[in-house]
UniProtKB/TrEMBL annotation, chain A:
The keyword Membrane belongs to this UniProt entry's keyword annotation: yes
GO cellular component terms attached to this protein's record: plasma membrane
Keywords associated with the record: Cell inner membrane, Cell membrane, Membrane, Transmembrane, Transmembrane helix, Transport
Membrane topology per record: Multi-pass membrane protein
Protein name in the entry: Inner membrane ABC transporter permease protein YdcV
Gene source species: wastewater metagenome
Compartmental location: Cell inner membrane
TrEMBL record, chain C:
GO CC annotation terms, alphabetical: plasma membrane
Keywords associated with the record: Cell membrane, Membrane, Transmembrane, Transmembrane helix, Transport
Membrane topology designation: Multi-pass membrane protein
Entry keyword annotation includes Endoplasmic reticulum: no
SUPFAM superfamilies, alphabetized: MetI-like
Family named by the database record: Belongs to the binding-protein-dependent transport system permease family. CysTW subfamily.
Protein's UniProt name: Spermidine/putrescine transport system permease protein PotB
Gene: potB_4
Organism: wastewater metagenome
Length: 266, 356, 288
């Protein structure tokens, strides 16, 4: 393929992926409430509304808290599991790893129904923590995979070097393993955070009528017609995602995290 | 008990089996204090496994390991007071050079100033002053090597273990480091075990060489003993190059090879006439003359190839069914050319007769 | 041996106890209860009562479900084929670009992929709307007479799906594509093949297994899409995920929803396992 054809192809994909975002950005900056093209006048009032209107601030806070804690839940499960699996290659740890990977690969509606009947059976339906735990379990795959990748990249001779210098397993973990996989732990946490922020169906089915997360709020609002605030919220989501993944791309090795094979690994 | 009365390391019948495979079998070895011992052998001979058993990174399936008379067989690596340099060097990429070197002090809770001081002392020792604050990735291969050595020596270990530490360096730097490492070891006086597959490295550095093959010790001796008086054909061929001729014993002083009777200075004790043997002759001991001159221990043949690499000349001579290699100094180069008929002489004192 | 072994075993047990507890209670628990509920009896005006009936599974043969299933399968396959056809050459070219360019694209793709369905659906509904959509741009450029609204509709739904699956497909193909030896195409080039021919004769055959695997996984991914059909499609374009949620939440028929979820679970698991089998077989082939 020639260079021009390649560039045209990439431009087409970029336009396809960027155009809804551009349109939403345009709508969010529109001074008038009516959705219209081309926009008439530029204003940031919908962003101000988003941050001041209690109807939007509540869901924003809910989503931020859920994503923050769900990320902690997922990472705290993933770290010891990935470590033991890497260190000892136990069959039992492999089975647990499979359990950790499974929910994410399946359509989320399955996990949603599962958690719904689970909390209903416990008489605990509709609680805030339901969403946190469900997201933590559903998204545990992400830190599990990133941390495993980070551990696989470690030279095992470093652990042995630490041992010959007098470090026991715990000291080795704290002084060698942990500092070296920290970027992968943070990446896994960040992936979980962003996806939890955006998750709809599980949150909806375990607590949708009582706990309004941001995606639920947008969908609910959508039933009563468009509002430019939605566009502002959508732009905020895009910004958070670009910021988080941009930081990982800047300070981490994103191609490797996503499975690129590098000859120097071997 | 006076620790000085003990050898630094004693192995008694040490074995390591992986299922049915014996990676190391029944090794007995005594290493005197302050010596440098090389474990030498081809890859897969068990030398690294044996080193790991000594380090406590792997546990023997049989036998006993003693450090200065103390039984350490069941002691895990972190309680053995060792310094070890790994093949990959295993420097910590998240720590600076000085932090790497002071790691063993840090995990023992020594204060920052003491750590720093010790790191600087060791950097001086390995002739790398002033790089303490640098990042490991900013160093060259040879410099990293020195940092790894300094790190292993930080706690004045009882035993200094090196697993093919120079294999990542290019040939020229490796030669330099061999000499430097040996001088360093002599200066520090630490009992050292070095694993290598490079016989030249072993010859350069070792006080004592342990030649291994398939998990078993073939020969233990000084480098010259092992070179001059190999215990078997494997050792003869692995250490340096050797002409190995198949033959059989004629009497107490001679063997028959390819129809020729060769006088040999030493034959294996109690070898009866007719015993199949291998005769090993080092190429530098083979004399070569132009023309066909008959005589004792002389074979005639045709020059197959002359390899003149400048610092030495190697001549390959086909004598009947066997090819004999002769190495000579350039100034001693006989005036021969490819295809010429020549005579090779295998002096009796150079013919080492080995049981097969 | 003994000291390190016991030390290691206790540490391992201790370390694994927390993941075991969490995954045991909150993963095995929900899936187990869901399986049980799928055999329960529905009770009007209440949730359900414990029983062991197959009636929920019998309803899998009702036309309500079968029509929905047929549409979901058709939509999933259509979207999978479109996504892989577009993503494959894209990923091939991407994996051969400068690392920096690759990273920027990956950030962009991940950002799009992580976007909530509701936001994607909302954005596309504006983009395809009559008042503020892309057709206004075409009118403005003089390419159309008057603006038209495409959402809701089948085209809008397919576009929304593809928007969701395209980054997913690229990221799925990326690892194997980046592992593809550049020397392979270079060898073909030195033998006189044009870049296009090298792509069709060398790259596509070498990537056969990842292509099949990503077709299957994209298909499974589409089965999980829930909001896009509701916002961008008409009711006749609703899918299995919508049906399950509708049964569970609005019809209060939790046992039937659970049976549907179990059906979806088994189907998806079978398809995912199939990709692993394909992968393993390919590895054996390349090894021999």
């Amino acid at each position: 393929m020639t260079r021009t054809v390649r560039n045209l192809y990439f431009a087409a994909v970029a336009v396809f992926l960027a155009s809804p975002i551009v349109v939403v950005l345009g709508v969010s900056l529109n001074a008038k409430k009516r959705l219209f093209f081309p926009p008439d006048g530029v204003s940031l009032r919908w962003y101000a509304d988003m941050l001041t209107d209690a109807a939007w601030r509540g869901p924003i806070e809910n989503s931020l808290i859920i994503a923050t804690v769900a990320g902690l839940v997922a990472t705290s499960i993933a770290l010891p599991l990935a470590y033991v699996l890497w260190r000892h290659r136990l069959l039992y740890a492999k089975i647990l790893y499979g359990l950790g990977i499974a929910p994410f690969m399946l359509p989320p509606v399955i996990t949603a129904v599962g958690f719904m009947v689970f909390w209903a059976a416990l008489g605990h339906y509709g609680q805030f923590e339901n969403v946190v735990i469900a997201h933590g379990i559903f998204l545990v795959t992400l830190p599990l995979m990133t941390i495993s990748l980070g551990l696989e990249a470690l030279d095992r001779e470093m652990l042995e070097a630490a041992r010959t210098m007098g470090a026991d397993e715990k000291t080795t973990f704290l002084t060698v393993v942990l500092p070296l996989v920290r970027p992968y732990i943070i990446s896994g946490y960040a992936f979980t955070f962003v996806l939890s922020m955006n998750e709809y169906i599980i949150a909806y089915m375990v607590a949708g009528f009582t706990v309004e997360t941001l995606p639920i709020k947008i969908f609910n609002a959508l039933r009563y017609g468009y509002s430019p605030v939605m566009a502002a919220v959508a732009v905020m989501f895009v910004m958070i995602a670009i910021l988080v993944f941009g930081l990982i791309g800047r300070f981490g090795n994103l191609p490797r995290l996503l499975g690129r094979w590098e000859p120097m690994d071997r | 008990m006076n620790a000085d009365s003990h050898d630094a390391l004693t192995l008694q019948g040490v074995s390591r089996h992986f299922g049915d495979v014996a990676a190391v079998s029944e090794v007995d070895l005594t290493v005197p204090r302050g010596k440098l011992v090389c474990f030498l052998g081809p890859s897969g001979c068990g030398k690294t496994t044996l080193l790991r058993l000594i380090a406590g990174l792997d546990m023997p399936t049989g036998g006993r390991i003693e450090f200065a008379g103390r039984d350490v067989t069941a002691l895990p690596a972190h309680k053995r007071n060792l310094g070890m340099v790994f093949q990959s060097l295993a420097l910590f990429p998240h720590l600076s050079v000085a932090e790497n070197i002071a790691y063993s002090l840090r995990i023992r809770g020594q204060d920052k100033a003491a750590q720093r001081q010790r790191a600087e002392e060791l950097l001086d020792l390995v002739r790398l002053p002033g790089v303490g604050d640098r990042h490991v990735s900013q160093l060259s291969g040879g410099q990293r090597q020195r940092v790894a050595i300094a790190r292993a020596l930080a706690l004045e270990p009882e035993l200094f273990l090196l697993d093919e530490p120079l294999s990542a360096l290019d040939a020229k730097l490796r030669e330099e480091m061999q000499v430097e490492l040996k001088l360093l070891q002599q200066r520090v006086g630490v009992t050292t075990i070095l694993v290598t597959h490079d016989q030249r490295e072993a010859m350069t550095m070792a006080d004592m060489v342990v030649v291994m093959r398939d998990g078993e010790v073939q020969q233990i001796g000084t480098p010259l003993e092992v070179y001059r008086d190999p215990a078997n054909a494997f050792v003869a061929e692995f250490i340096g190059t050797s002409n190995l001729l198949q033959g059989e014993v004629v009497d107490d002083t001679s063997v028959r090879v390819d129809g020729h009777v060769l006088q040999a200075a030493r034959l294996p004790a109690g070898a009866a006439a007719g015993t199949a043997v291998t005769v090993s002759v080092r190429p530098e001991d083979v004399h070569l003359y132009a023309g066909d001159e008959d005589g004792p221990n002389r074979l005639s043949g045709t020059v197959a190839f002359v390899r003149d690499v400048g610092q030495s000349v190697e001549l390959y001579v086909d004598c009947g069914g066997t090819r004999i290699t002769s190495h000579v100094q350039p100034r001693d180069k006989p005036d021969v050319h490819q295809g010429q008929t020549v005579t090779v002489e295998l002096p009796p004192e150079a013919c080492v007769v080995l049981k097969r | 041996m003994s000291t390190t072994a016991t030390e290691g075993t206790t540490a391992r047990k201790w370390l694994l106890s927390y993941p075991t507890l969490m995954l045991g209670v909150f993963f095995v628990g929900p899936f187990g209860i869901m399986l049980a509920v799928s055999f329960f009896q529905r009770v009007e005006s209440a949730f359900y009562k414990p029983a062991f009936v197959f009636s929920n599974y019998a309803r899998l043969f009702s036309s309500l479900f079968l029509d929905n299933l047929a549409f979901s399968l058709y939509l999933g396959m259509l979207v999978a084929v479109i996504s892989v056809s577009v993503a494959f050459p894209f990923t091939y070219l991407l994996s051969r670009m400068r690392m920096r360019t690759q990273t920027i694209w990956l950030v962009f793709l991940l950002s799009v992929l992580s976007l909530s369905e509701v936001i994607i659906a909302f954005s596309w509904s504006i983009l395809l709307s009559r008042t503020a959509g892309v057709s206004n741009l075409l009118v403005w450029l003089g390419l159309m007479d008057h603006p038209v609204g495409l959402a809701p509709g089948f085209t809008a739904e397919v576009l929304g799906y593809c928007y969701l699956t395209l980054p997913y497909t690229v990221l799925m193909l990326y690892p194997s594509m980046s592992r593809l030896d550049p020397e392979l195409t270079e060898a073909a080039r030195t033998l006189g093949a044009s870049p296009q021919r090298a792509f069709f004769n060398v790259v596509i055959p070498a990537m056969r297994q990842p292509i099949v695997a990503s077709l299957i996984l994209v298909f499974v991914f589409t089965l999980g899409v829930y909001l896009i059909p509701q916002i961008l499609g008409n009711p006749e374009h609703w899918t299995l995920s919508v049906l399950i949620t509708d049964q569970a939440v609005y019809q209060s028929n939790v046992p039937f929803a659970a049976a549907l979820a179990v059906f979806l679970l088994l189907t998806s698991l079978a398809l995912i396992l199939l990709t692993f089998v394909l992968g393993a077989r390919e590895r054996i082939h390349t090894a021999s």
